[in-house]
């Protein structure tokens, strides 16, 4: 994944999961910050962890920030 490609984390679904996309690519359903970090590591951002996910300007949080995991 290109390090400049924006990541979108969508609003929580009924079960609390949030879709995570990089451009046109679906990375997975996240149920917490660790899931988002794991998707980013798999996509090539090796230093991604919970703090990176909270602070990264690369991530666009839709329907709530990094602490919103329920509807």
Structural features, described:
The chain has 71 residues and is an alpha+beta fold. Helix content is 23%, strand content 24%. The chain has two helices and four strands. A four-stranded mixed sheet has the order 3-2-1-4, covered by helices on one side. The longest helix has 10 residues, at 33-42. The model has no long low-confidence stretch (mean pLDDT 93).
Strand content: 15-25%
Order of helices and strands: EEEHHE
Characterize the largest beta sheet: strand count, sense, and whether it forms a barrel: 4 strands, mixed
Straight-line distance between termini: 30 Å
Number of helices: 2
Average pLDDT over all residues:
93
Radius of gyration: 11 Å
Number of strands: 4
Low-confidence stretches: none
State the gist of this model:
This protein has 2 helices and 4 strands; from the N terminus they run βββααβ. It is an alpha+beta fold and 71 residues long. Strand 2 (18-22) and strand 3 form a beta hairpin.
Topology (SSEs and partners):
Layout: E1 7-9, E2 18-22, E3 25-30, H1 33-42, H2 50-55, E4 59-61
Parallel strand pairs: 1-4
Antiparallel strand pairs: 1-2, 2-3
Which key phrases capture this entry?
single chain; 71 residues; alpha+beta; four-stranded mixed sheet; 24% strand
């Amino acid at each position: 994944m290109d390090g400049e490609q924006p990541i979108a984390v969508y609003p929580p679904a009924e079960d609390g999961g949030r879709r995570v996309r990089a451009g046109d690519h679906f990375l997975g359903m996240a149920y917490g910050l660790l899931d988002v970090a794991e998707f980013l590591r798999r996509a090539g951002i090796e230093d991604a962890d919970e703090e990176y996910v909270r602070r990264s300007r690369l991530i666009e949080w839709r329907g709530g920030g990094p602490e919103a995991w329920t509807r």
